[in-house]
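Just scan my protein:

——
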Amino acid sequence: MNLRDGCSKFNNKVRLLYRSQKHSCWWKLHASCIFLILTVLLLTALLLTLVGDDIRTIYWVKQTGCFLYLNEMFRSMPPIFWMNLTELGDAIVLFPFTFGLITRFPVSFFALWTSVPIAATFSVLFKHLSLVPRPAQVLNIEDFNIIGAVLKASTSFPSGHTITIFTAVVAVLASLYPSPSLNRHGRIICVGFLFAAIVGVSRIAVGAHWPLDIFSGAIFGTLAGLIGARYSIRSTWWKNLLNPNCAYFISLGMLAWSLAVLVKTIENTEISVVCILSSSSGILAAFKYLYDKSIHLKHEAPLV
């Protein structure tokens, strides 16, 4: 074999490798990779717990300047905008928007719900391990802009709202496009992550979290979404729930959840816009799913 033939074969291998990676399933995480990331994050939380107040003080002191700058910059937008936007990080308000997935994209619907307990575990565990104070607990509340309730509990790290929105976005995108193409799906994926990031930074705008809380919440949410999507794609347990006989129970659950969102409107009328949209979306999805399953049962019913 001469040098020319060797170079030609090498170029062919590189070309084939590029084509395979272009449509590779980059959503899938190996168990070892997930374990490594979670170990690093867990050790970080344990370090905050074991070392005590010194490292917690360093954590928020180093971010104070960045937090105050971003909080002041976001003040240019009206408070009602941030109040409604940040509610999309609340699972109660967010999930009715996703109920419609069960009709056309059931794998994405159940990928999201598979991710929920994982995301909740991340949020509760690391909040109670780290005990990082929120901005309103250590800063003068007159020095920065607070929208909504004044939160002073030591539950700043990580941001639960950011975990929620990233979990939802990643679980849906990963299950819809398990082997994404940059040309066909790149824009949709970028818009999804951009939307999740904007909802995340809204927690800084309302004065509830430090910048690193948002970053860590994005990591936790992405991990939870990827794990849930991978499990739902590889398993078939959720297909049993698509039985028409289960449609009444699922529709009733979606309807009850959607109506419960309206309670938040009664408590706080300033978030009525996003709550009404969420409730309406969930109610329509519930009746649409029940109607489709009823039609399916009629077609399967034996003729007498």
Notes: The CA atoms of residues 71 and 205 lie 5 Å apart.
